[in-house]
Amino acid sequence: MHEQVFIGLGSNISHPEFGAPAEQVAHAIETIAVHPELELQASSSLYQSAPMGPQDQSDYINAVVHIRCACSADALLDHLQAIELHFGRERKEERWGPRTLDLDILLFDQQIIQTRRLTIPHYGIAEREFVLVPLFELAPEMVMPDGRPIAAWVANCSLKGLRRLRTEITSGEHNA
């Protein structure tokens, strides 16, 4: 079985090996795409957004990818957390602090999952323009798990501080 999955990506700290945040997001998409149980369907434009929480940090670079997934949600979470670690992600007590890479499972088909490890749809999706706008870009006709169209969700979120950077995430740009 192949589930339709959407993953949010974000970065606001450069990494000596993987480059600036935009380069890290592009490289992370490539890393996701080569996993044997994941098939990349599409990726959104890159967006710049103000940080959530502490404002004494750099703006984030965000994107969303649509994949087909042949593994469980828990196995996908394990894989995404391994990618975050590979990119130098440090899990700290501070919530919404700066990070080299953040990967979140936003939607896992139309499933609603509530476990100790996972909340899907992602718990903050309705308030996060940096997730909803790129998600809408990829799937404008989507009906969310609550039965409402994604357009209704986007219409109810603030777009303050969100800026579209570019429409194409180039393969290999992390080597530039």
From TrEMBL:
InterPro entries, A to Z: Hppk (IPR000550), Hppk_sf (IPR035907)
Enzyme Commission (EC) number: 2.7.6.3
Protein keywords: ATP-binding, Folate biosynthesis, Kinase, Nucleotide-binding, Transferase
Domain 7,8-dihydro-6-hydroxymethylpterin-pyrophosphokinase: 95-106
GO MF term set: 2-amino-4-hydroxy-6-hydroxymethyldihydropteridine diphosphokinase activity
One Pfam family hit: HPPK
Pathway membership: Cofactor biosynthesis; tetrahydrofolate biosynthesis; 2-amino-4-hydroxy-6-hydroxymethyl-7,8-dihydropteridine diphosphate from 7,8-dihydroneopterin triphosphate: step 4/4
Family in the record: Belongs to the HPPK family.
PANTHER family: 2-AMINO-4-HYDROXY-6-HYDROXYMETHYLDIHYDROPTERIDINE PYROPHOSPHOKINASE
Role summary: Catalyzes the transfer of pyrophosphate from adenosine triphosphate (ATP) to 6-hydroxymethyl-7,8-dihydropterin, an enzymatic step in folate biosynthesis pathway.
Name recorded for this polypeptide: 2-amino-4-hydroxy-6-hydroxymethyldihydropteridine pyrophosphokinase
Taxonomy of the source species: Bacteria, Pseudomonadati, Pseudomonadota, Gammaproteobacteria, Alteromonadales
